[in-house]
Amino acid sequence: MDPNNKPKGPSPHYSLYQREIFKRGGTTGEFPSFSVHPEELQESTKKKLNDRGYFYANSNAGLGWTDRANREAFYKWRIVPRALVDTNVRDMTTTLFGHRIPAPIMFAPIGINKLYTTLGELVPAKIAGELGIPYCLSTAASQPIEAVAEANEKGASVHNESNSVHEYDGPNGGNATSPRFFQLYMGHDDDITLSLLNRAWKSGFDVLMLTTDTWQLGWRPTDMSIANYVFYYPNPVGNEVGSSDPVFMKKHSRELAEDTGKWIDSCVWHGKAHTWDKIKWLIGEWHKISGGRPFVIKGIQCEADALKALEVSCEGIVVTNHAGRQVDGAVASLEVLPEIVQAVGDTLALGAHAVMVGRLYVWGMSHEGESGCRHVMKSLLADLDITMTVGGYPSIEKDVRGNKEALRYNPHGVPPRGEYARL
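The line above is the sequence of FMN hydroxy acid dehydrogenase domain-containing protein; the predicted structure tokens follow.
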């Protein structure tokens, strides 16, 4: 891993982060304070957080069968390494809604980040900016939209200064800030919805992502055992997007003062589902506000819904079952991805244009705030970079996109959960 023996390419040399860690340990005796092995990291996170913090991000619906199905689906697909391929220069860049980004990874929307660090969503937003990869803000965030945008902007300025040879394009060309997506939980007050959309657009969030699988929370017995719904507690977190919204506060400030759950119950997880007809209205309003920027639906799990999303003019879909947190016994997202890909086309090998990462960055910032979040995300990028190097795939676009020969399906051999680390 000679840093002087790596030709400059389109992507940063993420793999050098492993060398940096080895070097610090060998020369100064400085070691990481926690493991980034996912299972070990999850276990150490339990010790860092109280039950409310841990289970908010890690509880599953019902018996957790969908969560297990997600894990098993990944285990059934194996990389086919190629030998004697020139991987000295890797290109992990891809284009996502007009943004040319350095790697096909983005921060998933997770709410109430103040459960994990006092600065909440300001931490992952800043790290996403530093890394130049997209950040998606949840409607259930514990920081105002505008403050998160400012943190992301600060991180992006660090990224642009330190990666001057890697200029990633924005929708209109030129060196871009880190892309910002806004994830919407849509209530039934259109005035409040439009206020949120306008705030997001003015703050530089140029892709709108509607979550469709969580009109209300799924059946979560582990949360119920400890009444884990922080919105109903004194001095709650998770109301900050609502309490900073002028339209919501004009209508409901007195109610919010008396009932801390007013924001979450009426505008986020309200329990009253929308239909495709309402989606058409939302897309039209977002396009008017943003000048036609993309609208994305999150929560697609079958070919029929993917085609319906295209029919109503969605520019993108997120194939997800909410990490197994909504419908227990549901199909794994990776399990249905091939048929959805066949219906809508143009993806990376088996999967999508990009992958959203959620719990991993939460676990990292639960340990060390900003530095912990940065450590796990840089480690993930280094892992991807190294895997492409030793696996014989130098380019995401040229060697992975649409290449079915890069993967092989194995229907058997899935180990019991808890055995992954011992293989």
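Note on the example: The mean pLDDT is 91. The first helix runs from residue 16 to 28.
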